[in-house]
Specification:
Number of domains: 1
Largest sheet: 3 strands, antiparallel
Radius of gyration: 15 Å
Shape: elongated
Number of strands: 3
Oligomer: single chain
Distance between the termini: 14 Å
Helix content: 40-55%
Order of helices and strands: EEEHH
Strand content: 15-25%
């Protein structure tokens, strides 16, 4: 695993009048998502650190029964999250 450069999770959502504020207890506000957009956008952003950890754990303990496409998709998502080429 590559060392993370992002703000560590967990990240949370705090509703505001015009925004969903994504924040961490360690660093405070990280991003704002307009409240007139689906809340699911904010939920996905807030879940990002957890999703990255889950994918890294999946890759670390491979199950040969899963199709190769699953592994490639997981590796590509990890690379995208880390800002590197897959």
């Amino acid at each position: 695993m590559t060392e993370s450069k992002h703000t560590p999770g967990p990240w949370y959502i705090q509703p505001d009048r015009r925004y969903y504020v994504i924040y961490s207890e360690e660093c405070g506000a990280l991003a704002d998502v307009q409240a007139d957009l689906p809340k699911a956008n904010a939920q996905l952003i807030a879940a990002a650190p957890d999703l990255l950890v889950a994918l890294e754990e999946l890759i670390a303990a491979p199950n040969k029964k899963r199709p190769a496409e699953v592994w490639e998709a997981a590796r590509a998502a990890i690379a995208k999250a880390r800002g590197v080429e897959a």
